[in-house]
Amino acid sequence: MTPRGLAGIAAAALLAGLPSAADASHRAYRCTAPAGMTQFKVELPITARAIRRGKALVIVAIGSSSTQGVGASDPAHAYPSLLAGELRRRWPHLTITVHNKGVGGEVAGQMLARFERDVMPHKPHLVIWQTGSNHALRRDDVKDYAETVREGVKKLKAARVDVILMDPQYAPRVLDRPAHKRVVAAVGQAANDLKVAVFQRFEIMRHWVSSGQHKVEDLVSRDRLHMNDVSYSCIARLLAESLDAAARAAPAAGAGMPPPAGGPPPGPPAQAGNRAP
After folding, report:
1. Is there a contact between 170 and 218 (Cβ–Cβ < 8 Å)?
2. 61: part of which helix (H) or strand (E)?
3. Are strands 95-102 and 197-199 parallel, antiparallel or unpaired?
4. pTM over 0.85
5. Which residue, 77, 131, 252, 254, has most beta carbons within 10 Å?
6. Among candidate residues 263, 239, 262, 258, the one with its CA nearest the CA of residue 248
């Protein structure tokens, strides 16, 4: 077949909505984790309601370089972009928007200061707040950090927004800092106390290494800090699965919410006794 003919087939595939080669390759990465690491302890009722209504789901991803996508081959391989694709495959009837509001180098206080400008105007159903890595790299005391995270979560909850906190990445430069354990613990404690979800990125990535699915160098860029296409892809996929399960566990989710495209019907609610207010 001539090059022009091949180009025509490729164009037709794009017009037909078929997955691109880049999309197919990102989904081929092997990355699994135990349910105990990926399953949220709370529901996402506002997100679930938006899905049931079948019109639009608006997500804001705010954070630092891990949200911006530093280390990815291009912006399309940052986790918010990949997450949007994963969710559209699950709910093709929905208009899904994931706003990427990551700014490299920022700490929690700087992100909180951007809420009014970069989060609230979008009227999101869900905010994914990735934070902690830069604090661990720069400071040993986590008291101020923990208080800032709690202040931010309360602000989001007051705006009637579902919240997922994402803790630091498992990367050599993070591991080199003694504060990293306290930062991870502070994120988990804030989520537990304020009844919001936490995506345990640190534990999940550590599991990928300890289980032999990947080596650290498979998941982290040459700077020993930032994620890469493999880890962004895997994080997006597992985050989508976690979000899906949590949304389906919300009240009245069973009958009104369609199953993911090509997927099995929803199972029983996960940890339904620990519901967000």
Report:
1. no
2. strand 56-63
3. unpaired
4. no
5. 131
6. 258
